[in-house]
Design brief:
This protein is α+β, with helices and mostly antiparallel strands. It is built from nine helices and eleven strands. Helix 6 crosses helix 7 (172-179), helix 6 (148-160) crosses helix 9 and helix 7 (172-179) crosses helix 8 (183-196). It starts with a helix and ends with a helix.
Length: 219
Protein backbone atom coordinates (compact mmCIF):
# COMPACT_ATOMS: atom_id res chain seq x y z
CA UNK A 1 0.00 0.00 0.00
CA UNK A 2 1.42 3.41 -0.92
CA UNK A 3 -1.39 5.93 -0.29
CA UNK A 4 -0.98 7.66 3.09
CA UNK A 5 -4.21 9.69 3.12
CA UNK A 6 -6.26 7.05 4.97
CA UNK A 7 -3.59 6.75 7.67
CA UNK A 8 -3.21 10.51 8.04
CA UNK A 9 -6.95 10.90 8.61
CA UNK A 10 -6.59 9.08 11.96
CA UNK A 11 -5.52 10.67 15.24
CA UNK A 12 -2.61 8.25 15.61
CA UNK A 13 -0.95 9.23 12.33
CA UNK A 14 -2.28 12.75 11.72
CA UNK A 15 0.98 14.56 12.52
CA UNK A 16 3.52 12.01 11.28
CA UNK A 17 5.89 13.31 8.58
CA UNK A 18 5.17 12.18 5.02
CA UNK A 19 8.45 10.28 4.85
CA UNK A 20 7.79 8.31 8.03
CA UNK A 21 4.15 7.76 7.14
CA UNK A 22 5.12 6.41 3.71
CA UNK A 23 7.34 3.82 5.39
CA UNK A 24 4.42 2.68 7.56
CA UNK A 25 2.00 2.67 4.61
CA UNK A 26 4.42 0.54 2.56
CA UNK A 27 4.16 -2.22 5.18
CA UNK A 28 0.34 -2.10 5.32
CA UNK A 29 -1.98 -4.54 3.59
CA UNK A 30 -5.71 -4.54 2.85
CA UNK A 31 -8.03 -7.28 4.05
CA UNK A 32 -11.57 -8.04 2.91
CA UNK A 33 -14.03 -9.52 5.40
CA UNK A 34 -17.43 -11.15 5.01
CA UNK A 35 -20.19 -10.63 7.54
CA UNK A 36 -19.39 -12.68 10.62
CA UNK A 37 -15.65 -12.99 9.91
CA UNK A 38 -13.61 -12.65 13.10
CA UNK A 39 -10.55 -10.46 12.70
CA UNK A 40 -9.16 -11.41 16.10
CA UNK A 41 -10.40 -13.02 19.31
CA UNK A 42 -10.17 -11.82 22.89
CA UNK A 43 -6.85 -12.79 24.46
CA UNK A 44 -5.18 -13.62 21.12
CA UNK A 45 -1.57 -12.50 20.53
CA UNK A 46 -1.31 -9.42 18.37
CA UNK A 47 1.08 -7.76 15.94
CA UNK A 48 -1.17 -5.45 13.87
CA UNK A 49 -3.53 -2.52 14.22
CA UNK A 50 -6.33 -1.77 11.78
CA UNK A 51 -8.17 1.05 10.02
CA UNK A 52 -11.67 0.47 8.64
CA UNK A 53 -12.07 1.62 5.03
CA UNK A 54 -15.60 0.27 4.49
CA UNK A 55 -18.26 -1.59 6.45
CA UNK A 56 -18.57 -1.96 10.21
CA UNK A 57 -16.55 -3.88 12.79
CA UNK A 58 -17.94 -4.76 16.23
CA UNK A 59 -15.55 -4.75 19.17
CA UNK A 60 -17.08 -7.11 21.71
CA UNK A 61 -16.47 -8.90 24.99
CA UNK A 62 -18.13 -12.17 25.96
CA UNK A 63 -19.05 -13.40 29.42
CA UNK A 64 -18.31 -16.94 30.61
CA UNK A 65 -21.92 -17.91 29.85
CA UNK A 66 -21.68 -16.66 26.26
CA UNK A 67 -23.45 -13.32 26.55
CA UNK A 68 -21.95 -10.57 24.41
CA UNK A 69 -21.42 -6.88 25.03
CA UNK A 70 -20.56 -4.74 22.00
CA UNK A 71 -18.26 -2.12 23.51
CA UNK A 72 -17.56 -0.22 20.28
CA UNK A 73 -18.66 -0.03 16.67
CA UNK A 74 -15.88 0.79 14.24
CA UNK A 75 -16.84 2.41 10.93
CA UNK A 76 -15.00 3.88 7.96
CA UNK A 77 -11.96 5.86 9.09
CA UNK A 78 -11.84 4.38 12.60
CA UNK A 79 -8.58 2.92 13.94
CA UNK A 80 -8.50 0.04 16.42
CA UNK A 81 -6.29 -2.74 17.74
CA UNK A 82 -3.48 -0.44 18.87
CA UNK A 83 -3.43 -1.26 22.60
CA UNK A 84 -1.09 -4.29 22.46
CA UNK A 85 1.43 -2.16 20.57
CA UNK A 86 2.09 -0.37 23.85
CA UNK A 87 1.49 -2.96 26.58
CA UNK A 88 2.54 -6.13 24.77
CA UNK A 89 -0.52 -8.04 26.00
CA UNK A 90 -3.12 -9.99 24.03
CA UNK A 91 -6.29 -8.60 22.51
CA UNK A 92 -8.67 -7.07 25.04
CA UNK A 93 -11.77 -7.92 22.97
CA UNK A 94 -12.99 -9.67 19.84
CA UNK A 95 -13.28 -7.85 16.49
CA UNK A 96 -15.97 -9.17 14.12
CA UNK A 97 -17.32 -7.87 10.81
CA UNK A 98 -21.00 -6.92 11.03
CA UNK A 99 -21.26 -6.65 7.25
CA UNK A 100 -18.92 -7.03 4.25
CA UNK A 101 -15.98 -4.82 5.23
CA UNK A 102 -12.43 -3.90 4.31
CA UNK A 103 -9.66 -2.92 6.69
CA UNK A 104 -6.07 -1.80 6.37
CA UNK A 105 -3.78 -3.95 8.52
CA UNK A 106 -0.66 -2.15 9.79
CA UNK A 107 2.14 -4.16 11.44
CA UNK A 108 3.32 -2.91 14.81
CA UNK A 109 7.02 -3.11 13.86
CA UNK A 110 7.31 0.02 11.66
CA UNK A 111 5.10 2.01 14.06
CA UNK A 112 7.26 1.00 17.02
CA UNK A 113 10.38 1.88 15.04
CA UNK A 114 8.96 5.36 14.39
CA UNK A 115 8.40 6.00 18.10
CA UNK A 116 11.92 4.82 18.94
CA UNK A 117 13.58 7.31 16.57
CA UNK A 118 11.00 10.12 16.99
CA UNK A 119 9.55 9.92 20.52
CA UNK A 120 7.79 13.27 20.06
CA UNK A 121 5.35 11.42 17.79
CA UNK A 122 3.99 9.74 20.93
CA UNK A 123 1.91 12.87 21.57
CA UNK A 124 -0.45 11.46 18.94
CA UNK A 125 -0.83 8.39 21.13
CA UNK A 126 -1.76 10.62 24.06
CA UNK A 127 -4.45 12.31 21.95
CA UNK A 128 -5.83 8.94 20.89
CA UNK A 129 -5.91 7.63 24.47
CA UNK A 130 -7.63 10.80 25.68
CA UNK A 131 -10.30 10.30 23.02
CA UNK A 132 -10.75 6.67 24.09
CA UNK A 133 -11.09 7.73 27.75
CA UNK A 134 -13.71 10.36 26.92
CA UNK A 135 -15.72 7.76 25.02
CA UNK A 136 -15.40 5.32 27.91
CA UNK A 137 -16.55 7.99 30.36
CA UNK A 138 -19.62 8.67 28.21
CA UNK A 139 -20.46 4.97 27.99
CA UNK A 140 -20.08 4.59 31.75
CA UNK A 141 -22.32 7.61 32.34
CA UNK A 142 -24.94 6.13 30.01
CA UNK A 143 -24.95 2.87 31.97
CA UNK A 144 -25.46 4.77 35.23
CA UNK A 145 -27.86 7.55 34.24
CA UNK A 146 -29.84 6.05 31.34
CA UNK A 147 -32.27 3.14 31.58
CA UNK A 148 -32.56 0.51 28.84
CA UNK A 149 -35.13 2.59 26.93
CA UNK A 150 -32.87 5.65 26.99
CA UNK A 151 -29.81 3.68 25.90
CA UNK A 152 -31.80 2.06 23.09
CA UNK A 153 -32.92 5.48 21.83
CA UNK A 154 -29.34 6.73 21.92
CA UNK A 155 -27.93 3.73 20.02
CA UNK A 156 -30.65 3.98 17.34
CA UNK A 157 -29.86 7.66 16.82
CA UNK A 158 -26.14 6.87 16.56
CA UNK A 159 -26.79 4.15 13.97
CA UNK A 160 -29.11 6.44 12.00
CA UNK A 161 -26.64 9.32 11.89
CA UNK A 162 -28.19 12.22 10.00
CA UNK A 163 -30.71 10.01 8.21
CA UNK A 164 -34.29 9.61 9.38
CA UNK A 165 -34.70 6.46 7.30
CA UNK A 166 -32.13 3.70 7.71
CA UNK A 167 -31.60 -0.04 7.70
CA UNK A 168 -30.25 -1.44 10.94
CA UNK A 169 -26.75 -2.69 10.05
CA UNK A 170 -26.71 -5.20 12.90
CA UNK A 171 -28.97 -7.94 14.26
CA UNK A 172 -31.30 -7.48 17.22
CA UNK A 173 -28.87 -9.54 19.32
CA UNK A 174 -26.00 -7.26 18.34
CA UNK A 175 -28.09 -4.17 19.08
CA UNK A 176 -28.89 -5.62 22.50
CA UNK A 177 -25.15 -6.13 23.02
CA UNK A 178 -24.53 -2.46 22.22
CA UNK A 179 -27.28 -1.36 24.60
CA UNK A 180 -26.11 -3.72 27.33
CA UNK A 181 -29.48 -5.38 27.90
CA UNK A 182 -31.43 -8.45 26.83
CA UNK A 183 -32.93 -8.65 23.36
CA UNK A 184 -36.40 -8.79 24.89
CA UNK A 185 -35.94 -5.53 26.80
CA UNK A 186 -34.51 -3.75 23.76
CA UNK A 187 -37.40 -4.97 21.58
CA UNK A 188 -39.83 -3.73 24.21
CA UNK A 189 -38.18 -0.29 24.13
CA UNK A 190 -38.41 -0.16 20.32
CA UNK A 191 -42.06 -1.21 20.47
CA UNK A 192 -42.74 1.68 22.86
CA UNK A 193 -41.15 4.17 20.42
CA UNK A 194 -43.38 2.81 17.64
CA UNK A 195 -46.47 3.05 19.84
CA UNK A 196 -45.61 6.65 20.76
CA UNK A 197 -45.26 7.55 17.08
CA UNK A 198 -41.56 8.37 17.31
CA UNK A 199 -40.44 5.49 15.08
CA UNK A 200 -41.72 3.23 12.33
CA UNK A 201 -40.23 -0.23 11.98
CA UNK A 202 -40.46 -2.98 9.37
CA UNK A 203 -38.03 -5.80 10.08
CA UNK A 204 -34.57 -4.09 10.03
CA UNK A 205 -35.80 -0.95 8.27
CA UNK A 206 -36.53 2.05 10.50
CA UNK A 207 -37.96 5.51 9.96
CA UNK A 208 -37.52 8.14 12.66
CA UNK A 209 -40.78 10.08 12.71
CA UNK A 210 -40.08 12.25 15.76
CA UNK A 211 -36.34 12.82 16.17
CA UNK A 212 -36.85 15.51 18.82
CA UNK A 213 -38.70 13.23 21.22
CA UNK A 214 -36.35 10.30 20.55
CA UNK A 215 -33.40 12.62 21.25
CA UNK A 216 -34.96 13.85 24.50
CA UNK A 217 -35.48 10.23 25.61
CA UNK A 218 -31.82 9.47 24.89
CA UNK A 219 -30.55 12.06 27.35
Amino acid sequence: MSDTSTLRATLLFADVSEENLSAIAAAATERSLRRGDVLFTEGAPSDQLYIVTSGRIAIANKSVDGRESVVALMESGDLFGEMPLFDGLGRSAEARALEPSTVIAIPYAPVRALYEVAPAELWSVVKLLATRLRSMDETLADSVFLDVTGRTAKRLLELAGDNDEFTLPITQEELAGMVGASRERVNKAIASFVKLGWLDQSDRRYVITNREQLSIRSR
